[in-house]
């Protein structure tokens, strides 16, 4: 992907490698950047895509990250291995979402179907917001993952046993921001709306941020950067925050902690037909934004941009 992107960078653009941003200062006439390699630079406008632990975000009012109470085992299984060990396992053919109380597992193919990706979540909702001193990512053992999901059906145990080198991740979320911009700074991607992975939407939303912002600069020209940042925030801030909320809610749906499921307390407890319908509708509704057209948002942003020059 990096090579593909580099091929489309205009010759007028310069790419600087080995520059980790430590801090920045927003001045009246520029943004001043300070890098780990002792380099400094000034820019008229800063577009910050510096991720979940964004340095630039600290210049815009925010309440920071918080621990969601959820952790996850991640692992990969060659499809060929699963076919030999468990030829009738449903994950060989189909993506599957296993749901249980305070736990769920998402399984789907990657790499052209050659690899089965396994993401096994487990939560303590009462731990949300508590300090978390554990490493955000660490190595785990197959036995650790199997033990965490003890009591689940055999095909889940078979799946987890087939992961050779699982890793364990802490899931953090970002309190929704009131704006993604300041006068000379715009946040994009996780810097603006880091979200839980339950919709698989984080990377896609970062791309839409970049698409809208890039098209606005193309439409308005760099001299109108102040109005462009306002137009960007007008459309991307409410939409990004909505996806962020929906992702969080989808995690509650998958782990049977949604409204209407309050009586579900134990692992393996059966849902009524009415509760299954409630859950299906909630999951479907949280995906309804898939049909949103970024170009419609772009048109609104361009209209706002051009209002200032009318």
Can you tell me about this structure?
- The chain has 310 residues and is of the alpha+beta class.
- The chain has 2 domains: 20-63 and 175-307, FAD/NAD(P)-binding domain, CATH 3.50.50; 65-173, D-Amino Acid Oxidase, Chain A, domain 2, CATH 3.30.9.30.
- The protein has 9 helices and 11 strands.
- Helix 6 packs parallel to helix 9 and helix 7 runs antiparallel to helix 9 (294-307).
- The two termini are 40 Å apart.
List keywords for this structure.
310 residues, 3-stranded antiparallel β-sheet, monooxygenase activity, oxidoreductase, FAD, 9 helices, FAD-dep_Monooxygenase_BioMet, 2 domains, FAD/NAD-bd_sf, globular, alpha+beta
Question: Secondary structure elements and their pairing?
Answer:
Elements: H1 2-7, E1 21-26, E2 31-35, E3 40-43, E4 46-48, E5 65-78, H2 79-85, E6 96-100, E7 103-110, E8 115-123, E9 137-139, H3 142-148, H4 154-161, E10 167-174, E11 185-187, H5 190-193, H6 202-220, H7 225-254, H8 273-285, H9 294-307
Parallel strand pairs: 4-11
Antiparallel strand pairs: 1-2, 2-3, 5-8, 5-10, 6-7, 7-8, 9-10
Mean pLDDT: 94
From the alpha carbons, calculate the radius of gyration and give it in angstroms: 22 Å
User: What is the domain tally?
Assistant: 2
Which CATH architecture of the largest domain? 3-Layer(bba) Sandwich
Level-1 CATH class name of the largest domain: Alpha Beta
User: Tally the helices: what do you get?
Assistant: 9
Strand coverage percent? 15-25%
Strands ordered across the widest β-sheet:
6-7-8-5-10-9
Biggest beta sheet summary: 6 strands, antiparallel
| Class per helix and strand makeup | alpha+beta
What's the CATH H-level homologous superfamily of the largest domain? FAD/NAD(P)-binding domain
* CATH fold title of the largest domain: FAD/NAD(P)-binding domain
How many beta-strand runs? 11
Q: Regions with pLDDT < 50 over 5+ consecutive residues?
A: none
Shape: globular
User: End-to-end span in angstroms?
Assistant: 40 Å
